[in-house]
Design brief:
The chain is α/β, with parallel strands linked by helices. It contains eleven helices and ten strands. Bound molecules: ligand IDC.
Length: 398
């Protein structure tokens, strides 16, 4: 009798081990979407829940109703799709990439942003100005030029929250317009194989708790919509300021991130830092508990010099992943003279550390940080004569 019990026990154990092995092999594998869907349908891998690729679906029927010249870009990135096993980054908690829209999903590895093979992906791009104020630059032709001629692989969609016609201060119609612009921007980026940041651009509201409930509603909606987009990055609070502490920001992040994670468990989330996203050193030993969070450092080179670079160095020395999700080379007002000397110190540091950098701003507003001269009315097809000195600098630092 004892022997029978023993044999039964051994049998059960070995079944268990086989099942576990199967699960862990699956977790380590980069599988094409179809394969994952099949597995899911058969109920074998309940942990992987990204099944459809809404970006691809959208591409298919967008051609006939847009003026910007949609095309077959869907195939452009298909070469990037991986079928081989994912990598040696087993030190990271989660190693299973989400299903892709054809664009490599990203994750945080140490202080860097990488793909799921552990290759560093340096993000380089441009930020819109306020979407309500300069919506025209969200068009596919412009994005195509930013990608092909300017070397951009990312676009930041800056949506002010508190300013005139911000998301939280305008009417319902304005809100819908902003969401439509984001949708267009995400779709163009997806079709072009670019990453895209959806930026909750707090500024005059100072403390992200000011519009926290709006933020949670917004990110719940937006993350449900884009959960299958491997190229979407959420920036949950542009620049906390006005005495907002890291504790305030962190507690806000701890409420908003779970809202996003409920839909989108893997996407990179950018968390702003105090003093207009300068205090990345405050994050040391006090990180948000999420493996795919990066922290924002913003600088304006004519104002922010060594002392902010020191903060950045402290953060990096302590293993904090940092992204420069907004910067320019003039002063902090977005205007004033360019400081080329400080600009080159900053870009050197950025490059040495493979950090992402996204430059402010896509507009023809009469300010130094604007990429386009104020007399330029174009929103695509830019020539050198259309570009400001700021934009020209950006083109030289590739
Ligand atoms: C600036 C714009 C300017 C606008 C102002 C207020 O360039 O045209 O009038 O905002 O809305 C930031 C902010 C960013 C600022 C930029 C320059 O994130 O919104 O844009 N800046 O002041 N942080 C530091 C500088």
């Amino acid at each position: 009798m004892k022997k029978i019990k023993y044999t039964a026990c051994i049998l059960m154990l070995s079944l268990l081990v086989t099942a576990c092995n199967k699960r862990s092999v699956m977790n380590d594998m980069w599988m094409p979407k179809e394969a994952v869907s099949q597995i899911e349908e058969s109920g074998e891998n309940k942990t992987q829940n990204k099944t459809e690729s809404s970006g691809e679906n959208k591409t298919e029927n967008s051609g006939e109703n847009k003026t910007e010249g949609f095309s077959e870009n869907k195939t452009e990135n298909s070469g990037e799709n991986k079928t081989e096993d994912s990598n040696e980054n087993t030190s990271q908690e989660q190693t299973q990439p989400p299903v892709q829209t054809g664009i490599k999903p990203l994750k945080v590895t140490g202080t860097k942003i990488t793909d799921y093979d552990g290759n560093v992906v340096q993000l380089r791009g441009v930020s819109t100005h306020g979407l309500s104020w300069f919506p025209g630059y969200v068009n596919k032709e412009a994005f195509t030029q930013f990608k092909n001629e300017w070397g951009c692989n990312i676009i930041r969609l800056a949506m002010y929250t508190a300013e005139y016609n911000g998301y939280c201060t305008g009417d319902e119609n304005n809100k819908q317009n902003l969401k439509n612009l984001i949708d267009n921007g995400v779709n163009y980026a997806t079709e072009l194989g670019m990453y895209v940041i959806i930026d909750w651009h707090i500024l005059n509201d100072c403390n992200p708790h000011t519009y926290k409930e709006e933020s949670k509603r917004f990110f719940a909606e937006i993350s449900a919509k884009y959960k299958d987009h491997t190229n979407v990055i959420y920036e949950i609070c542009n620049e906390p300021n006005g005495g907002t502490s890291w504790w305030d920001v962190k507690s806000y992040a701890e409420e908003v991130i779970p809202v996003i994670r409920a839909n989108d468990p893997d996407a990179i989330i950018i968390v702003g830092t105090p003093t207009w996203s300068q205090d990345v050193d405050h994050v040391v030993n006090n990180r948000v508990n999420d493996p795919n969070v990066v922290y924002a450092l913003h600088f304006y080179a004519a104002t922010h010099t060594d002392w902010i670079r020191n903060k950045l160095q402290t953060a990096l020395n302590n293993g904090i992943p940092v992204i420069v999700s907004e910067f320019s080379i003039c002063d902090a007002s977005g205007n004033g003279a360019i400081n080329y000397n400080e600009a080159s110190k900053w870009i050197d540091m950025i490059k040495q550390n493979d950090m992402g950098y996204i430059m402010w701003n896509l507009s023809n507003k009469g300010e130094t940080s604007a990429f386009f001269n104020s007399w330029c009315q174009k929103t695509s097809g830019f020539t050198m004569e259309d570009l400001s000195e700021t934009a020209k600098w950006f083109l030289t630092v590739r």
